[in-house]
Amino acid sequence: MAESRSVTHSIEIEAPASEVYDLVADASRWPVVFGPTVHVDLLEHGPSEERFRIWAFAKGAVASWSSRRQFDAENLTVGFRQERSVPPIASMGGLWEFRDLGTGAGGGRRTRVLFRHDFTLAEDTPETLRRITEILDQNSTAELQALKNVAELGVPVDELVFSFEETIEYDGEPEPAYRFVHDCAAWPERLPHVEAVEVTEDVPGVQHMEMETRAADGTTHRTTSVRVCSLGERIVYKQTKLPKVLLGHSGSWHFTKAADGRSAITSRHLVMLDPRQVAPGGLAEFRDQVEATLKRSSRTTMEAAARTAALGSPTATPAP
Question: What pLDDT digit, counting tens, does each position of 277-307 carry?
Fold first, then answer.
């Protein structure tokens, strides 16, 4: 029988325990709160339990698994258990605990967060144990620090995190539009706002992209992203190098066929603003500016993809 292991990481945060608990309980925000999290699909959700599938970094590679979670808002705990672990892990579960430490020196509430993992290994060797422990240390430390950073911003997270989407329809098939968005290495030749793109795909279906874009004022910006392109009629992504005005940005592209024979592309964005980059009282206007900028960029891409799809070929040159 495989030996059960356990590791616990902790951090103190200058914020009420209930607020820190809420950040962990809402997995839909994880891609912009936690650095290692790329994307989350909520499969089932109820008041005390949920299932989700997650894609996350593990020592630079993107791994995916499904988990169940149990919530206890009264005692401020969140339990979790992977439904099917990825080898060399045989099983993985654990618990988040949020303990009220009372009032801190600054007059606000303090919280100690305990983040415990218990696991067994299918390949129980010293090298495998070392590698898994390193991954847990790296990701747990990053996630706890992210919790601290966000909770201590002094601005309600509901004012910083928001999502939006936009859809365009066209006459044509979904596949050419999908290929247009998938083949991002060709974007500098196809999209006016893209100056350069470098793409690596060491694992099929997982793209690491570095892109330089030109804004309406002529300035250029360089970002890096990871994209998961093995999900059928959609591509999901997370920016890993962000503009300084954002603390997080993730999103997805969806390609669908309607009953009337037309097709549609939908672009979805999840964003976390950095309030330190905003003048006092200007958060609402800043949010509108960020949304308008991202919509303009994604709409340009969607329109070009739709024109290409209307021509029937993923490599055709879009009409002007």
Answer: 988 788 999 999 999 999 999 999 999 999 9
Query: Do 91 and 165 belong to one domain?
Result: no
CA distance readout (Å), 7 to 45, 114, 133: 28, 10, 8
Q: Tell me: pLDDT of 215 over 90.
A: no
Q: What's the mean pLDDT when you consider all of the chain? A: 93
The pLDDT tens digits of the residues spanning 67-79 come to: 999 999 999 999 9
Beta pairing partners, 292: none
Task: Check which CATH number belongs to the domain holding 75 and give it.
Answer: 3.30.530.20
**Secondary structure letter of residue 28 according to DSSP:** G
**CA 157 centroid distance within chain:** 16
Q: Is residue 281 part of a domain?
A: yes
Q: Is residue 319 part of a domain?
A: no
Do 89 and 11 share a structural domain?
A: yes
Report DSSP state, residue 306.
Answer: H
Give dist(CA 214, CA 20) in Å, integer. Answer: 37
From residue 170, alpha-carbon distances to 211, 218, 265 in Å are: 27, 30, 8
Contacts for 248-251: CB closer than 8 Å, 24+ residues apart: 248/31, 248/32, 248/33, 248/161, 248/272, 249/32, 249/294, 250/31, 250/32, 250/38, 250/39, 251/298
| Number of domains composing the chain | 2
How does residue 1 score in pLDDT terms, banded at 50, 70 and 90? Answer: low
CA pair distance 161, 133, nearest whole angstrom: 32
Confidence band (pLDDT; 50, 70, 90) for 319? very low
